[in-house]
């Protein structure tokens, strides 16, 4: 929430589809603006792609599990990748041909998440034969970081290490709220609506997520059976143990639908960010990716789908691919959030507030946000499963390193000579200021 509040302030001052990379340019010194914008843009692009991977890949996994209920289907990495590809293609088609429907789908998604989550939790709590105690839910500590049930990091290192790397899934869930910033150019009262959207996304996700996880934990019937479920999904096993197979299918539909909506709108956000960054020359082949289909009125978005699919391919040979994708998404997005917030801290006297402002709490909240982002950026590249081998490697460090080397190297070799930041927005601001000046000296 500290990060979201700090971002909301900046978004209110600079509402644009470029989001963090545009903010970085506006909050830097003039001579540093292109570099800040370039680095922020590439981290945001990495995070945007990875968060779509995490959401849609999870959707594909749950679809695979749902297909095993009342059938003889046995999912494999190959079939899951095939389902994942189908999910991405369908989400891409919706964003390509159904742009005029996105507003209505968004409303459906909001109600689906709210009513679906409430109904799911009520159903499993009401039908569960027994319920776990509060002591089990709130005080039981389980170290599940050992590969194949072996020694975990709690034994090899410490329980504190397990708790810290366990923050990942909650932190990953609370990402992507920059989507509100990327969509500001398509909303009314952008200087307030984008900021409110950021804060609301975090708050509602936190409340609904807490409600959901408590319902699931209290409804566990057999812990070992849940963790080692034949379905491969502990959540699916909880459904089976509480509401039976028919009820489990219905609840799986709710979960899969929520994931599908999330992935669809993640691609919507991705396409806006990539369009804006391409428009300003930040993406190779930008002349192509910066085009907007005249008939459909939507930015080219298949680059986002393609990159997300490629990022999911390591799942064919790695058992921790999903965790790595979530690490990449979290690190990439939060670093792109942190750079403009850090610039706002460094150049505090140059920050021009927008309608949404935190008053005297503004600066300490921004500092707290920067410190938290620095902490999680280190934590989420650490090993998550013991021992570390080709199957359990957290390849988030590989993806992050590639982006750092590429963005910094390409900048030094070439981009610094021609990339000047968000050109279109700068031109529009200059033209606006010029028109105001000329208007003040003209006769009525």
UniProtKB/TrEMBL annotation:
One GO CC term, this protein: membrane
Keywords attached to this entry: Membrane, Transmembrane, Transmembrane helix, Transport
Pfam family, one: AA_permease_2
Domain of life per record: Eukaryota
Record's bilayer topology term: Multi-pass membrane protein
Positions in coiled-coil regions: none
Transmembrane intervals: 42-69, 81-104, 110-126, 198-220, 248-269, 301-322, 328-347, 359-381, 393-413
GO-annotated molecular function: transmembrane transporter activity
Localization terms from the record: Membrane
PANTHER family in UniProt: AMINO-ACID PERMEASE BAT1, OS04G0435100 PROTEIN
Protein's recorded name: Amino acid transporter
Native source organism of the sequence: Macrolepiota fuliginosa MF-IS2
Lineage per the UniProt record: Eukaryota, Fungi, Dikarya, Basidiomycota, Agaricomycotina
């Amino acid at each position: 929430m500290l990060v979201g509040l700090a971002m909301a302030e900046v978004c209110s001052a600079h509402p644009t589809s470029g989001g963090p990379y545009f903010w970085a340019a506006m909050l830097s010194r003039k001579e540093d603006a292109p570099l800040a914008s370039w680095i922020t843009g590439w981290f945001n692009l990495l995070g945007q792609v990875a968060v779509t991977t995490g959401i849609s890949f999870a959707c594909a996994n749950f679809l695979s599990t749902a297909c095993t209920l009342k059938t003889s289907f046995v999912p494999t990495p190959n079939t899951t990748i095939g389902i994942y590809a189908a999910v991405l293609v369908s989400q891409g088609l919706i964003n390509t041909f159904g742009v005029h429907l996105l507003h209505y789908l968004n409303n459906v998604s909001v109600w689906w998440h709210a009513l679906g989550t409430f109904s799911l939790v009520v159903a499993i709590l009401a039908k569960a034969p027994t319920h776990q105690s509060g002591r089990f839910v709130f005080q039981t500590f389980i170290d599940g970081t050992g590969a194949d049930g072996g020694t975990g990091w709690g034994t090899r290192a410490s329980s504190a290490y397990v708790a810290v790397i366990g923050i990942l899934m909650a932190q990953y869930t609370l990402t992507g709220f920059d989507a509100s910033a990327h969509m500001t150019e398509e909303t009314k009262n952008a200087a307030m609506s984008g900021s409110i959207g950021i804060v609301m996304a975090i708050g509602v996700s936190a409340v609904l997520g807490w409600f959901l996880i408590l319902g699931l934990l209290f409804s566990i019937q057999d812990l070992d059976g849940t963790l080692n479920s034949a379905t491969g999904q502990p959540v699916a096993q909880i459904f089976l143990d509480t509401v039976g197979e028919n009820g489990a299918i219905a609840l799986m539909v709710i979960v899969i639908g929520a994931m599908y909506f999330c992935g669809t709108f993640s691609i919507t956000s991705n396409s806006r960010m990539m369009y804006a960054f391409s428009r300003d020359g930040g993406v190779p082949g930008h002349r192509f990716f910066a085009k907007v289909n005249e008939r459909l009125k939507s930015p080219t978005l298949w680059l986002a789908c393609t990159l997300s699919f490629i990022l999911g391919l390591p799942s064919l040979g790695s058992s921790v691919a999903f965790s790595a994708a979530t690490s990449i998404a979290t690190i990439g997005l939060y670093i792109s959030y942190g750079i403009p917030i850090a610039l706002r801290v460094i150049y505090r006297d140059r920050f021009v507030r927008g309608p949404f402002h935190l008053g005297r709490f503004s600066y300490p909240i921004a500092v707290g946000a920067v410190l938290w982002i620095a902490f999680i950026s280190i934590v989420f590249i650490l090993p998550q499963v013991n021992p570390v081998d080709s199957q359990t490697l957290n390849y988030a460090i590989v993806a992050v390193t590639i982006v750092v080397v590429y963005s910094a190297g390409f900048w030094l070799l070439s981009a610094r000579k021609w990339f000047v930041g968000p050109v279109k927005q700068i031109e529009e601001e200059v033209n606006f200021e010029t028109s105001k000046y000329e208007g003040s000296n003209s006769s009525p």
